[in-house]
Amino acid sequence: MEQRYATAPDQVPGMDTEELRRRYLVPGLFVDDEIRTVYTHHDRVVLGGVSPVSAPLTLPGYPEIRSEQFFDHREAGVVNVGGPGTITVDGTAHRLAHGACLYVGRGAADVVLSSDDAAGDEGPARFYLFSAPAHTAYPTTLVEPGQGTVRELGDQLTSNRRTLNQYIHSSGVQSCQVVMGVTTLHPGSMWNTMPAHTHDRRTECYLYFDLPDEARVVHLLGEPTETRHMVVANREAIISPSWSVHSGVGTSAYSFVWAMAGENQAFDDMDGFDVATMR
Questions:
Q1: Where does Zn(2+) bind (predicted)?
Q2: Count of structural domains within the chain
Q3: 108 and which of 71, 121, 236, 239 could share a cystine (Cβ 3.0–4.6 Å)?
């Protein structure tokens, strides 16, 4: 488990591109037949990529979180960003199509992830995991694509028409602190979350997916008056501290998993910034 230590906003002006990417970009999460995890000290979030290709993979415990089983004192949302697959939690199988989300509650002991034998055009399953500490147990719950709370946002005239699907949130699948969903941009739209915002009470992470191999997203981060950018490829994740804006524009339409953990679960608890005030 790779560890990333927390950063402060006054560190950003002195960072070059390489350091920005080292601290906030998470590439290489999806490697065939491997489980890769990153622990960020921002709200003690764990990001993971599970890629079962030739055989199922079992989620282990890690010494970095001092647990025999991964879910001894954690919860997680898992979104499948690849072909169809199955997550078996303590003997109960949950089949996840592309874009589906499974919430796994504290106390789950045996978690096995596998790809379907016939993966189809989308290839093997690629499971993206977002985990945070949990104080109590909520039931493991599957949400199919499009079955969450759907919100239509933006406008084609401003190139940010998008469908936001809330999966794990206060009015949907219950959790201790994880809030999670998937946003898909409409064809011809490229911007997400603009005007940009921060939410000083929660860390948010993005995973960009459904982005063509030759396309990229230019992701904005940093304080609103001291922004920086990173160029992000398909299935790469971003760690966005509570003080940082998180917005991006792509060279093509794309989807992204957004997930948060921190002080509360209020989706609209954010501080917006007019574009004219950003630097």
A1: 197, 199, 204, 246
A2: 1
A3: 71
